[in-house]
Task: inverse folding
């Protein structure tokens, strides 16, 4: 006998609080704490990352939903109210990243910071957030892979009972793809921690490294899923995707798709890996990657404000006004962040 987890954590009268929301909130909080901690190293105030999270999380949810609905429009066009019911599932991580990145670019520029520097600091927070967030799929029994035997889960993968039982959906056991991706992201988090302490790392490259690592794992895990967004592609592209995924056939079988022959997330993962590597090489060859990860981070907006104040003080002094109450030179003890 198995015991599936109730997706509803608790109820407050008519209000039902889902585990999915609690887990996503926890993921955002852990990611925020990691960014704040690393930001201290560069003297960036914690309020900056708090505000960035308050802007980025809603933008990510909106982007994730728009991305998913756009590719599943036939399922929503006759029931528009369902579009807003995110707790029913149906969000796409690449859409979330697009939404969050757009919001982050706008916010960081308004604050005077270089986007790549802030993106580097946030990269570990992003990947740990995804590692935690995948457990929301576990609670909802969604985003799983194709059917497998109970023996495969217990004896081959040696998974604990609470995972095996939750992968029993209406009497059929499925691949816990949420677990595969979560573990991959945890390894990626450790890798990012190591990379950001290396002297060769340039600004922006930790963020690119996050995308490369995540996309590689997503490509192979996505091939096991049965709910992938897909389209009908030419034979050469199908052969290429199948060839790249073929090492997985040693232990796994690809999940069936309801339509299409190429998974959108797999194709996007391949394109992201190629583009990220090419961009890193191009930036270095063109000399656009001179700034290292470990270099100080300066807010141009705050530096300009500090310069304007200094210029104003100098003008007052030139007019004959006293510099201090004691008549001595005035020392500006306010720290300039960076």
Result:
């Amino acid at each position: 006998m198995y015991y599936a987890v109730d997706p509803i954590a608790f109820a407050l009268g008519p209000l039902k609080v889902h585990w999915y929301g609690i887990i996503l909130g926890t993921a955002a909080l852990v990611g925020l704490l990691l960014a704040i901690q690393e930001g201290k190293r560069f003297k960036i105030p914690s309020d900056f990352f708090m505000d960035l999270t308050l802007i980025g999380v809603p933008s990510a949810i909106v982007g994730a939903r728009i991305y998913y609905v756009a590719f599943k429009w036939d399922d929503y066009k006759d029931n528009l109210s369902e579009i807003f019911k995110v707790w029913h599932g149906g969000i796409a991580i690449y859409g979330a990243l697009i939404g969050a990145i757009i919001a982050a670019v706008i916010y960081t520029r308004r604050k005077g910071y270089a986007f790549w520097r802030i993106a580097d600091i946030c990269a570990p927070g992003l990947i740990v957030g995804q590692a935690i967030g995948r457990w929301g799929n576990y609670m909802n029994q969604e985003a799983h892979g194709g059917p497998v035997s109970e023996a495969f889960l217990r004896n081959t993968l040696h998974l604990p009972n609470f995972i095996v039982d939750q992968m029993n959906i209406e009497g059929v056991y499925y691949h816990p793809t949420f677990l595969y991706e979560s573990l991959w992201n945890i390894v990626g988090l450790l890798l990012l921690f190591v990379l950001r302490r290396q002297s060769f790392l340039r600004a922006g490259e930790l963020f690119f490294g996050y995308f490369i690592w995540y996309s590689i794992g997503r490509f192979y895990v996505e091939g096991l899923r049965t709910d992938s967004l897909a389209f009908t592609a030419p034979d050469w592209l199908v052969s290429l995707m199948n060839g790249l995924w073929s090492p997985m056939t040693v232990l796994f079988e690809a999940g069936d798709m309801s339509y299409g022959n190429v998974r959108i997330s797999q194709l996007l993962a391949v394109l992201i890996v190629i583009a990220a590597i090419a961009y890193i090489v191009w930036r270095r060859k063109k000399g656009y990657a001179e700034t290292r990860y470990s270099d100080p981070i300066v807010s141009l907006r705050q530096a300009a404000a500090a310069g304007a104040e200094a210029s104003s003080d100098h003008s007052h002094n030139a007019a004959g006004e006293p510099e201090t109450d004691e008549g001595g030179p005035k020392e500006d003890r306010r720290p300039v962040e960076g």
Notes: The chain has one domain: 12-310. The beta strands are 8-12, 15-18, 147-148, 168-169, 172-174, 230-231, 262-263. The chain has a mean pLDDT of 88.
